[in-house]
Amino acid sequence: MVSFGRISQALLRSSIIQTRQLSASAAHSHGEQTARTWKILSFVVALPGVAVCMLNMYLKMQQHAAHHVEPEFVPYSHLRIRSKRFPWGDGNKSLFHNPEVNNDHSSSRLPHTLGPESSLNALLCY
């Protein structure tokens, strides 16, 4: 009877150890398979999706730029009020000034064909 108990305990221990080893290897294999699946999805679905979105945005921007007309700059007196000059550059342009997007506010950039009253307004506003 004692020998039967020892044998059953030895078999039970070996089966528990084998079960733990099998479940651990199954979990490890599952993790590798999941990582491989997500890696494939990233390269096959996500990156082409981002590329298609970038292409779509580029084409829409080209279409918009083709018919976009820049409105005429009007030098309103309440704009560009400076109580103190900026410490960089000529003191009149902001730190993130972009001459292609922002108006330069200098007399060289203002249109000279508007007439004498517009040039007088431009001189008074600056």
Q: What can you see in these coordinates?
A:
- The protein has 126 residues and is mainly α.
- Helix content is 60%, strand content 0%.
- The protein is elongated, with a radius of gyration of 37 Å.
- It is found in: Mitochondrion inner membrane.
Give the beta-strand count: 0
Instruction: Give the topology string: H per helix, E per strand.
Output: HH
For the termini, the CA-CA separation is 110 Å
Shape: elongated
User: Percent range for helical residues?
Assistant: 55-70%
Largest sheet: none
How many helix segments? 2
* Overall average residue pLDDT: 74
User: Could you name the ranges where pLDDT drops below 50 across 5 or more consecutive residues?
Assistant: 107-126
In angstroms, what is the radius of gyration?
Answer: 37 Å
Percent of residues in beta strands = under 5%
Structural class, from helix and strand content? Answer: mainly alpha
Membrane topology: Single-pass membrane protein
Family: Belongs to the cytochrome c oxidase subunit 6A family.
Keywords: Membrane, Mitochondrion, Mitochondrion inner membrane, Oxidoreductase, Transit peptide, Transmembrane, Transmembrane helix
Organism: Oncorhynchus kisutch
